[in-house]
Amino acid sequence: MRIVHVADSFPPDVGGIERQVEALAHAQLADGHDVSVITAVNKDGPQGGDLDVHRGLRTRWLTIAFPSLNHRMVAKVLDRGDVDVVHAHFTVASPIAIYVARAASRRGIPVAVTVHSVWWKVAVVHRFVSGVFFGPSRLRVVYSGVSTMIAGHIRRVYPRAGDVSIVPNLVDTQWWAPQSPSKHRAGQPDFRVVLVGRLKKRKHIDEFIEILSQVKAKVPEGTQVSVSIVGAGPRHDDLRQQVEQLGLDSWVELLGHRTPEQIRDLLHESDLFVAPSRQEAFGIAALEARSAGVPVIGYTFTGLADFVESGVEGLLVDDADDMADGLAKLLVDGQRVERLKASTRSRPPAVTFDDAMRATYAFYDRARRELGGRRSSRD
């Protein structure tokens, strides 16, 4: 197939969505497909390696590109040979992805849209951008979400969208899997907790640090806990100050950026992984941790529910108070944590790399079946 991905954000920008689109494009290239990428990102840094990447003009407002300025580039890519499917990746603000999806739809090219972020936010921006900048016409596309939760949001917001597929993110679960028994037992002498994520407001790491202060007050004095927070971002100094103010210096360490290999090694020696975001559309870092055999603590109403069975592969809770109570109980019960680790290690993840690739190609087949072939019209 000739596949064109479109994503407003792409490497060298750093983030989960950027990694996903690049990984998917590389995997499809390895499968023998003709793959191109259209993105708004045009700046110095790694440029996608052997991928055919078409970058918009550097003119942007904050992180938002102006689609009309990239009209020629988009037309050149879409009109260069027969495109079998355009895979548009929608986040909260995706004017380039919306523009290309509309341009492809007008050409009769099947368009498959995957929503990577909490949908009600995406829908509000999508409607505004479509209505104000592109006119009132409705996109002729098929939709998917990266999780059951996101798919449900799409169905509620756009009840006329038809079937909504689930296309999980790509995680090489085999690469993360432990190759030997855990070298550490929970509570002997400490409990090792890890969190991986960009230090940004939407990841709710500050809220988790508040939860930790509640947990510390609930467990016996002298309970030894080591919480490693991996990641870089604009909130590093604020989080460090918060840790000091709450008297959590002996519990929490901000490790900064770490390579995937370093993160894997850390996970293989950890007891619990915490995913504190209440707006986790999928949970890439959480699936990596679960694949590494580490029980995951997160929220029931997020994408984690697709691959974490509460009580078996971790603990899914309803709110911050439940998280504080649940974590406090685990930190005084090393045997229960070890049972969770054993069951997590013994079960294959519910979502694997192969599952995600099969779902992606099935989604493309659906787009081509429901939306038909290419017409001769031009933008």
Characterization of this structure:
This is D-inositol 3-phosphate glycosyltransferase. Residues 183-346 form the Glycosyl transferase family domain. GO terms for molecular function: hexosyltransferase activity. Keywords: Glycosyltransferase, Transferase. Residues 14-174 form the Glycosyltransferase subfamily 4-like N-terminal domain. The protein is α/β, with parallel strands linked by helices. The chain folds into 2 domains: 2-171 and 354-371, Glycogen Phosphorylase B (Rossmann fold), CATH 3.40.50; 173-350, Rossmann fold, CATH 3.40.50.2000. Helix content is 39%, strand content 17%. It is built from 13 helices and 15 strands. It has helices at residues 16-30, 71-78, 95-106, 119-133, 148-157, 173-176, 205-218, 236-245, 260-268, 284-291, 320-330, 334-346, 353-371, and strands at 2-7, 34-39, 52-55, 60-61, 64-65, 85-90, 111-115, 142-145, 164-166, 191-196, 225-230, 252-256, 272-274, 296-299, 314-317. The strands form 3 sheets. It has a 7-stranded parallel sheet, sandwiched between helices. Helix 7 packs across helix 11. The radius of gyration is 22 Å and the shape is elongated. The two termini are 22 Å apart. Residues 131-137 and 375-379 have low confidence and may be disordered.
